[in-house]
Amino acid sequence: MHKLTDKASWKSLVNHYRSLENISLRELFSEDPDRGKKLIIRATDIYFDYSKQRVTDETIKLLINLAREQGLKERMEAMFAGDRINTTENRSVLHTALRMPEGKELLVDGINVTEEVHRVLASMTTFCDRIRTGEWKGFSGKPVRNIVNIGIGGSDLGPVMAYEALKYYTSGDMTFRFVSNIDGSDLVEALRGLNPDETLFIISSKTFTTLETLTNAKSARRWFLKNGGSKADVAKHFVAVSTNREKVIEFGIDPENMFGFWDWVGGRYSMDSAIGLSTMLAVGPEAFREMLRGFREMDEHFLNTPFEQNIPVIMGLLAVWNTNFLNLRTQAILPYDNYLKRFPAYLQQLTMESNGKSVTLEGHRVDYHTGPVYWGEPGTNGQHSFYQLIHQGTMIIPCDFIGFISPLNDLEPHHDYLMANMIAQGEALAFGKTRKEAEEAGIESRLLPHKVFEGNRPSSTFLLEKLTPHTLGKLVAMYEHTVFTQGVLWGINSFDQMGVELGKVLAEKIISELEDQGNVMGHDSSTNELIKIISRPVTP
Ligand code: G6Q
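The joint structure predicted for all components is written out below.
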């Protein structure tokens, strides 16, 4: 099999780039004044405008050829069918099964996974109803008012993001806190002011072996026992979300109160599995199912739409174009909706843990760049900080602007101001301000170089009607499938995370050395010194 960069479709893109590199977005728009009406996709109630990306119809055609040559369609079908496409871990990749409608059969190793998914959804629903109606009582007979989710990475970022994103849909009579960091301050601050008899801990860990989560869970249990709870009460106040029943029992949680999922759900793809228990508690089972329907709608769009009209596919192709041909190495995510404030952090994991790889599926070192750095902040806050670099810095950063036509809180005139700001950013990035325009605007000559904006900076804009559980599901699935598309084009495994696992192992060794008062076991001289300084002297 040919290397990616030796393929005919890749070479055509290299040549095509040469013909396009000196053409600006200004020129492209003046050559075709209707460009902004053409380089768009309207599907699943999303308006996706990529006309401000530095591409032409020809670019898209050539990128689609590359996708075909890389077998994108076959890979999509393989993923949805449950083939073991995560080859390093020999696993299926089936987050799409988490949102399959009830009754639709999907067999993996002879097991109908859809049935399993709906069995867990049903038990989550019963549990959430009991908590939300107050039927489930804490040890003093009072209902649960506080939910503390303890988890990290994929067992935290999705739940936090979804809680923030859907806060508008919560009743407000329960508090939700999220603890992830091994830093004790995270737990201490989360527990501040909580009454143990009204608090429910969800210990979320796929493996139930993660150091941070188990350490926080044990400390939470100690806090609970110290503040009035008894061992017998633990069952009423600690539940688990995990794939590891044995470890859950070993920790002391009643397996009746364990909500399962499966090894075919990757951590960063798990917010719509039982890992979303806190989300369901916050918004209720019906809204959670509405979110699943949003995920499903995007899955169907991705699987069944020709590439030319396929939102996640085109987004993925644009990411490859920007990364490998325009040599742009980061991607800003800029939601113009304050409820989406944790969305960039969520995507940071989804994208970078998935595509931060430098060997192909066959184990060969790549000779092209893979996953860009994703980052961002909600607008307009970002405008008053890092947008300076986006507008005038030497580094060019493609931006995704995400906006909603109708606000959730219609406070005149906020929404118009918010949307005007978003639209203005994309316009300024694409077209900039020439020296002549600055002169005509009366800028004094000494300041002209500072007031010129080069423009030609690519962005995409996404418009959706309103932020709802349904649209949130669609947005998340849209990025999941974009990540998949990128991974297929780069020929990498988007579903393992060996780098994360390395960190876990290395820390274990140093922990034992710190506990041994700095009896350091042969690291480099820098690491040895750091360990010695940190380890506490023995108290007499
Ligand atoms: C996600 C990663 C990683 C994982 C955490 C927590 O894809 O694998 O972020 O989610 O390390 O793992 P546990 O859920 O097993 O505690």
